[in-house]
Amino acid sequence: MIMAKQDYNQIAGQKISRIEALSDGLFAIAMTLLILGIVIPSAEGIDSEAKLIDEFLKLAPKFLSYLLGFMTLGIFWVGHSTQFKFIDKTDRHLTWLTIFFWMVVSIIPFSTSFLSSFINFKFAIGLYWLNIFLCGVTLYFHWGYAEKNNLLDETLDGQTIGKAVRNRIIQAQIFYAVAALACFLNNYLSVCLFILIQLNYALAVFFSSEKSQEKR
């Protein structure tokens, strides 16, 4: 009986293409769900351009959180797909680490919608940050397991790549924590810092030196 379990653990969850396909689908669905959190105002009582514009402007926090959520999902999709670029094979445990990563990623539409509805509350910002933190933690352990268990492409410099992957996750989480703590000064300052961090990791705005190194 024990041997059967061991054999199953050795053969289960080893098809990388299915993991990547499901991952892409999950991220696509999560990104689509973000826009569903923005509800069009009721036409009842709106009888002038001014009132319509006023109702539209009330949606500003929701568009702000939509921007945050979409960039968050985009950044973690890039991070996860980058890891699988260097992972040559997988096993049951790595597959389940990926599933746990998907689990916390799928919460992002909720945490961003919650933030847009209660943007003036520090708890909402804390919940959004916790969601990002859990995404970073699961992604970090995902890479760490693959590295420790020799699942990376052996033709690559795993040590150099691993250092870059880990540093990026750790640095990002430090920045996110600072942005979350900024809510004790001002909630909108905190949200703006989150957006700046997201823009940086999406566009590498503040890391021109890294760009030049990549071109070498």
Short description:
The chain is an all-alpha fold and 216 residues long.
Q: Can you offer a commentary on this structure?
A:
By secondary structure, the protein is mainly alpha-helical. Helices cover 77% and strands 0% of the residues. The protein contains 10 helices and no strands. α2 (16-36) packs antiparallel against α4 (60-86). The longest helix is centred in the middle third of the chain and has 27 residues, at 60-86. It starts with a helix and ends with a helix. The relative contact order is 0.11.
Q: What general form does the structure show?
A: elongated
The percent range for strand residues is under 5%
Count of helix runs = 10
Spans of at least 5 consecutive residues whose pLDDT stays below 50 are 208-216
Provide the succession of SSEs: HHHHHHHHHH
Task: Report how far apart the termini are.
Answer: 55 Å
Radius of gyration: 20 Å
Share of helical residues: over 70%
Number of strands: 0
Secondary-structure content class: mainly alpha
Average pLDDT, rounded to a whole number, is: 83
| Main sheet summary | none
Compile the SSE list and pairings.
Blueprint: H1 2-11, H2 16-36, H3 49-57, H4 60-86, H5 92-105, H6 108-117, H7 122-148, H8 158-181, H9 187-203, H10 208-215
Helix pairs in contact: 2-4, 2-5, 2-6, 4-6, 4-7, 4-9, 5-7, 6-7, 7-8, 8-9
Supply the key terms.
216 residues; mainly alpha; 10 helices; 77% helix; elongated
